[in-house]
Model the fold of this input.
Amino acid sequence: MNNIGRNSFDIGYMDTLAGGDSYLHRLDPRAKLITAFLFIVAVVSFGRYAVFALIPFLVYPAVMISLGGLPYGYLLKKVLVVSPFAIVIGIFNPLMDREIVMQIGGIGISGGWISFASILLRFVLTVSAALIVIALTGFNTVCLALTKLGVPRPFVVQLMFFYRYLFVLTDEAERMVRARSLRTFDAGAMRFKTFVPLIGHLLLRTLDRAERIYLAMRCRGFDGRIPMIRSLRIHFREVAFVTGWAVLFTVLRCYNIPLLLGSLVTEAFR
Done:
């Protein structure tokens, strides 16, 4: 299996993780979605220079991963794969904001570096929260929960198709790369003049296969609804789950816990 095939299987592993039987897996997906939304809102609501105040929010992904039995390494790898986007967004901050706002051991640190670190930390927190929800719930169930929460159905269906057609794209790409290797006896990197027409051909083949899949779905009665065997019901455990995390997020947002702990330690040794 080439790299494209391995990456395709790696994406589908999220659905395999969602088949677990832990306490978090059995929760109603709406409770997990609402909690993740509150977490993301709390994280992004901080000022641009907030770094230490964001550190206590790491407790949410740590607890969710531990209780859900999710692999730390797999989720960390997924976060690192998309981390260049956050780096591109904040890499110019140290050049544009050079005012010294902090001194550490006599070394002045500009506001640009602090805001850059804040962007990276927010990115890790928010992306990990989204990945955890998908790994604990499954993408189809997440789409169903979004529908139940009132998100417009066309948006949810497009989101579901986008996720599913990623596998169509990677499957077609794997076939083309394998065919090229067999015909040229060369499994190495392809030249640019070969790569460009292959990309165009790949898109045409993917669109054609996606159209056949859609027609097959229509023949089987697909009408835009997401059929699920599992019923969704809100119980006391879901209410307690959302309420508990909401209270914790509110406390962490209103109080700078690292600053308070630092003040207590300073007072104790004074």
